[in-house]
Amino acid sequence: MSQPPLWIFADQLGSHVHGGEHADRDVVLVESSAALGRRRYHRQKLHLVLSGMRHLHAELGDRSSLVRSTTYREALSGIGRPVVVHEPTSRAAAAFVERLRDDGLVAEILPTPTFALPRAEFAKWAGDRRRFRMADFYRAQRERFGLLLEPDGGPEGGRWSLDEQNREPPPKGARTLDVPGPWVPVEDEIDAAVRRDLDDWAIPTVGRDGPRWFAVTETEAHAALDHFVRHRLGAFGTYEDAVLEDDWTMAHSLLSVPLNLGLLEPLEVAAAAEHAYRRGDVGLNAAEGFIRQVIGWREYVWHLYWHLGPDYRTANALAARRPLPAWFADLDADVVDAACLRSALAGVRDRGWVHHIQRLMVLGNHALQRGYDPDALTEWFQTAFVDGFDWVMPVNVIGMSQHADGGRIATKPYASGGAYINRTSDHCRGCRFDPKVRVGDDACPFTAGYWMWVDRHRDRLAANNRTARAVSSMHRLRDLDELVAQEEARRAF
Fold first, then answer.
1. CATH class of the domain at 6-110
2. Which of 256, 298, 411, 472 could form a disulfide bond with 387, CB atoms 3.0-4.6 angstroms apart?
3. Which pTM does this prediction carry?
4. 429 CB-contact burial (10 Å; exposed 0-12 / middle 13-18 / buried 19+)
């Protein structure tokens, strides 16, 4: 009897999932209308997921079956025999797969092959820690996988992180970085069919339809990786945290989508960056900064999703309760006056993607200052971003962005005034607000909002030696009462 077929989820599309020891298995892909419509996803996210599955089906030919049904259970019931499946990437899906196994529809659940470090190994590293620091995990990852190490086992260049060399502001007066543009796919009939189907199905979505910007096949993903390493990685490290109004990609890789669709193995991505450094093609700060994102932060977020448990997402240490305003939830960037926020929100609306500084220091910083509910914000990031999945956003939003976990992940909140945005971007020069002004018609909502936020959480911040100075500075503001009244009245901008 032939082996049970392999059921593949939409974020498990690479040959390291369906090849190797599984190369002789038939493959089952399922388009579930219930799953597609369960949340209000970005239109382009649904396009990417469907395009990826349909391209894989076409690539595998007779080996694969693409089943369209209302539910996964309905689809698997029609297969006629149990399937095997790799561990899903969310708790809800994992529990569902366990139920399917209990009901005889799933024969075996295999470990996920789409991350470098096995979950059991992370559990050993985590031990009984109550607080988690990415720097410790990242060093362990480098040592375990032999990345950017000197012959004696120490870090290349003598330091584990060159983060301070990744913070240069954009070149003065530049409208774009002087680097080749990103790799861009060529759409085909499969993409056209996906677009027609999404139109016909009328699934509620957010954001605009648009050209496909991201790789959805393994061939495309490797082409995108090669292009990035050859032409863009060299500038990435220096300008990793910089933002330019007219350059939405800067020198970023745009590989988060193919990585999160399971098309690339994290270690091969990290190795490509290291090889570029060893060849002398890029500086150490570029290779190390990129590897830190892929093998450090991305893997860290994945493992903490499981390790911290289901209650982590509902953490709300700062008691933030405000619902997301409609203009924010619906990506209505045109009603926003603040240039940085308008640009970031428009990027999400038009592409379902902005890079990490806009996520953390513009969108997240705004939400933190205004006291948006962190669970609702996590859901928004997960559904509105094309690279968002259940495992991606809790640590990024609850821990890193909103400090809702009380400091389990980050030692201080990532809150800042307009001065930070002015230093790292060109937004302020074309904005009607002045980052140096706190009160009045020209007051920067981020500068004023920052002091409003410090006032609201003064006791907690005063008890943290990394934020106590902000409270001392706040006490010296003569216009604090006027500022707080202004910002409480200014709910949207």
1. alpha beta
2. 256
3. 0.96
4. exposed
CA 39/CA 205 separation, integer angstroms:
8
In angstroms, the CA 224 to CA 226 distance is 6
**Could you say which of 3.30.2350.10, 1.10.760.10, 3.40.50.2000, 1.25.40.80 is the CATH number of the domain covering 119-182+232-307?**
1.25.40.80
Residues of the chain with CATH 3.40.50.620: 6-110
Range list for CATH 1.10.579.10 in the chain: 313-489
From first CA to last CA, the distance across the chain in angstroms is: 64
pLDDT of 491 reads 61
Tell me: the pLDDT tens digits for 206-222?
999 999 999 999 999 99
Q: How many residues does the chain have?
A: 493
Q: What is the CATH architecture of 313-489?
A: Orthogonal Bundle (1.10)
- Please give the single-letter amino acid code of residue 489: A
Tell me the C-alpha to C-alpha distance, in Å, between residue 17 and each of 86, 199, 258, 263, 340: 8, 31, 14, 9, 40
pLDDT of 127-162, one tens digit each? 988 888 999 999 999 999 999 999 999 999 999 999
